[in-house]
């Protein structure tokens, strides 16, 4: 809506038409404000909209800063007070913010709340001002006219609606800023934790290797001199050490995931083939059968995805019922720009209360004797899928089997210039 149009509508004998058009204008301002991410953008939108909506000769955007009013921005036929501070008790915006209500002043020189000196160098004869956030004002929007003018109540109503929207936009910016800071802190601490896990597991490997070689030497040199009990001690030490090696190895892999990233379009079918080759012995020994639909092309990192499929297949084979050979079915379904892959087994299943918890680091539901493991595999799967901006979850019927689903981007669904 142009200023002339607004002016003619206000003056027209049909104010309700003006009101409808002003509301339409307000709706587009609301949309603009909802996209604003900083206070300068809000100020720019508001100073323009305030002036256009009321067809004033000038508009200001004032912020409360402690006991000062800060004239943050303006849009006017000639300069007003942009960039200046005034005490709250010595200017009209201070009055509006203190009282939380609008003012309309037809003759500014006849109103004692107005510091006339501050206005003498300006064009202002009349003004209207509304608070931003009525309950506890954080600012104000001022409108100014060069000739004596008394805006209609509808105009003040629209201006107040603009101020209310502005307060929501400012609150959003505050929350957005807080969220950004929190995400940053989280990312930093995540990075630190990751580094710690990597350094710790890396440094633990060295002394562990020494322990393993020393125990091996002990067995080689003195094995024949030891009785059953002595040999048992050595066996247990060797088992403990190799479990620790496995655990540290898994943890290292987990901590290193972020560094691997090499994203590109790839055939998941080839990734599966490599994994099946690696698991050949396990598959044979367990008598497992693995069926798979033809797997699609996805956008991903081959090393990470191998790790993901390997963990899921190993689990599907490992968590089996005694009497049944493992049967694993891999499926693929397309959904918009993503693929949903499913790995279903006929194993022991998982109680529904644990379906989310199992993706946490070191979360295991069974003793080492029943099903050995480190409790890191699914946490690694989750991290891999999240690095692909996907999602992983499990569904299960206890005693009958589990299906692990994960979502990966299809190559067409990825903007190659912004993704990783
Ligand atoms: P790990 O296999 O080393 O124990 P994971 O992180 O891979 O660790 O899995 C965590 C836990 O989730 C397992 O200990 C097991 O209790 C449960 N789990 C994972 N996969 C399956 C499955 N296919 N069937 C039943 N339980 C499973």
Structure, briefly:
It contains eleven helices and 13 strands. It has 420 residues and is an alpha+beta fold.
What does this structure look like?
With 420 residues, the protein is of the alpha+beta class. It is 50% helix and 19% strand. It is built from eleven helices and 13 strands. It has a six-stranded antiparallel sheet with strand order 3-2-1-6-5-4, sandwiched between helices. The chain has a five-stranded mixed sheet with strand order 8-10-11-13-12. A hairpin with an 8-residue loop joins strand 2 (68-76) and strand 3. Helix 6 packs antiparallel against helix 7 (228-260). The longest helix has 70 residues, at 153-222. It is elongated, with a radius of gyration of 35 Å. Bound molecules: adenosine-5'-diphosphate. Adenosine-5'-diphosphate is lined by residues 311, 315-316, 319, 345, 347-348, 350, 358, 363-366, 373-379, 402.
List the helices and strands and how they pair.
Blueprint: H1 3-11, H2 15-35, H3 39-54, E1 58-65, E2 68-76, E3 85-87, H4 92-99, E4 103-105, H5 116-120, E5 126-132, E6 139-145, H6 153-222, H7 228-260, E7 264-267, H8 268-278, H9 280-286, E8 289-292, E9 297-300, H10 302-318, E10 327-335, E11 338-345, H11 377-387, E12 392-397, E13 401-409
Parallel strand pairs: 8-10
Antiparallel strand pairs: 1-2, 1-6, 2-3, 4-5, 5-6, 7-9, 10-11, 11-13, 12-13
Helix pairs in contact: 1-2, 2-3, 2-6, 3-6, 6-7, 7-11, 8-10, 10-11
Bound molecules: adenosine-5'-diphosphate (ADP).
Adenosine-5'-diphosphate binds at residues 311, 315-316, 319, 345, 347-348, 350, 358, 363-366, 373-379, 402.
């Amino acid at each position: 809506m142009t200023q002339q149009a607004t002016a003619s509508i206000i003056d027209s004998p049909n104010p309700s038409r003006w009101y409808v058009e002003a509301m339409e204008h307000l709706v587009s301002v609301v949309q603009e404000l909802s996209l604003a991410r900083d206070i300068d953008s809000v100020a720019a939108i508001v100073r323009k909209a305030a002036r256009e909506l009321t067809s004033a000769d000038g508009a200001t955007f004032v912020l409360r800063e402690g006991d000062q009013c800060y004239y943050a921005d303006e849009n006017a036929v000639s300069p007003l007070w942009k960039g200046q501070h005034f005490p709250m008790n010595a200017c009209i915006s201070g009055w509006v913010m203190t009282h939380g209500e609008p003012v309309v002043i037809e003759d500014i020189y006849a109103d004692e709340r107005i510091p006339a000196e501050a206005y003498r160098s300006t064009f202002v004869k009349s003004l209207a001002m509304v608070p931003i956030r009525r309950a506890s004002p954080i600012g104000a929007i001022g409108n100014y006219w060069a000739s004596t003018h008394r805006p209609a109540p509808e105009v003040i109503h629209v201006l107040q609606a603009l101020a209310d929207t502005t307060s929501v936009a400012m609150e959003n910016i505050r929350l957005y800023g807080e969220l950004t800071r929190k995400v940053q802190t989280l990312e930093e601490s995540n990075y630190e934790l990751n580094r710690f896990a990597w350094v710790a597991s890396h440094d633990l490997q060295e002394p562990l290797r020494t322990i393993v070689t020393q125990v091996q030497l002990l067995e080689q040199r003195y094995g024949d001199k030891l009785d059953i009990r002595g040999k048992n001690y050595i066996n247990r030490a060797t088992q403990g050490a190799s479990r620790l090696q496995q655990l540290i190895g898994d943890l290292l892999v987990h901590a290193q995931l972020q560094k691997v990233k090499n994203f590109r379009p790839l055939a998941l079918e080839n990734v599966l083939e490599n994994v099946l080759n690696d698991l050949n012995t396990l598959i044979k020994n367990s008598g497992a059968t693995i069926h798979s639909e033809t797997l699609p092309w996805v956008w991903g990192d081959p090393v990470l995805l191998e790790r993901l499929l390997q963990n899921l297949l190993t689990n599907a084979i490992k968590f089996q019922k005694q009497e049944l050979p493992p049967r694993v079915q891999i499926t693929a379904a397309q959904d918009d720009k993503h693929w949903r892959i499913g790995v279903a087994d006929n194993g022991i299943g998982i109680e529904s209360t644990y379906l989310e918890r199992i993706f946490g680091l070191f979360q295991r539901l069974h003793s080492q004797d029943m099903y050995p493991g480190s409790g890191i595999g699914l946490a690694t799967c989750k991290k891999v899928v999240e690095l692909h901006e996907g999602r992983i979850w499990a569904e299960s019927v206890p005693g009958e089997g589990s299906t692990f689903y994960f979502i990966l981007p299809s190559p067409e669904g990825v903007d190659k210039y912004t993704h990783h």
